[in-house]
Design a protein that fits this description.
This protein is an alpha+beta fold and 241 residues long. It contains 5 helices and 9 strands, in the order H-H-H-H-H-E-E-E-E-E-E-E-E-E. The structure holds zinc ion (2 copies).
């Protein structure tokens, strides 16, 4: 029973990861698809824990959980910040987990075993584990980004268009994934506008001067703690993002 309840807890955590992925335009479809097996696995594990004898559901709980884990992995790697020079790795990192989850589900669902499936599963499982081990190093916030040879101070927040977290270099920077151009400067040279714009879009990140986390509106603003002036602009897409 405890094992099955642990399965329910894991699948609930996967649901939370996938629900957070619904908010990003880049991953909402992936997250919505992943929620189906995640919710199914939650039901199946809970049913098995209380021994309600709905045998097919209990049998497929592990397979559904593997499938949901693959989708949650893909959502996390799709949105995680990667150094500009390593963004090419995103596809490999994302798909290793997605394929690993799908193959594990196939392996669990399938009544017979085949060598090619075993081999493929081991390869993708190892690639997924390597991706998990590398995540803290790859997504570490360094406080700077590289524009070619140039090292530029940066701040990290989710791209207003695609939702991927990006280290935006001071000055003009492009999103690593969707190419949105954004201008960010501090200390801003211009004086602060007298009245704040009521419908200004906002993003949340740590003040580059004092580290206090603030919600910064587009245009000109000041840090509420240290008074740093910051200017932030990006192109508005026709869809309003
Ligand atoms: Zn973007
Ligand atoms: Zn500050």
């Amino acid at each position: 029973m405890l094992q099955h309840l642990a399965g329910t807890a894991l699948c609930f955590a996967l649901c939370l990861v996938l629900i957070s992925g619904l908010r990003a335009p880049r991953t909402w479809i992936l997250a919505a698809i992943g929620l189906v097996p995640a919710a199914g696995a939650c039901v199946a594990f809970t049913t098995a824990a209380f021994d309600l004898a709905i045998e097919p559901l209990a049998r497929y709980a592990h397979g559904l959980a593997a499938l949901a884990l693959g989708f949650a992995h893909a959502v996390v790697y799709s949105l995680t910040a990667l150094p500009r020079e390593r963004v090419w790795m995103r596809g490999l990192l994302m798909f290793s987990g997605l394929w690993g989850g799908a193959l594990a589900a196939l392996w669990l669902f399938s009544p017979s075993r085949s060598t090619w499936l075993d081999v493929a599963l081991v390869v993708f499982a190892l690639a997924t584990l390597a991706a998990w081990a590398a995540l803290p190093f790859l997504s570490r916030e360094r406080g700077f980004t590289r524009h070619g040879e140039l090292v530029v101070p940066s701040v990290r927040f989710a791209c207003p268009r695609c939702g991927t977290r990006v280290d935006w270099g001071k000055g003009v920077a492009a999103c690593t994934d969707c190419g949105l151009f954004l201008h960010i400067a501090w200390p801003a040279p211009e004086p602060i506008a007298a009245a704040p714009v009521p419908d200004a879009r906002r993003v949340r990140f740590a003040c580059p001067e004092c580290g206090s986390r603030e919600r910064w509106p587009t245009g000109l603003s000041t840090c509420s703690r240290c008074g740093l002036r910051l200017s932030l602009h990006w192109n508005v897409h026709p869809s309003g993002r």
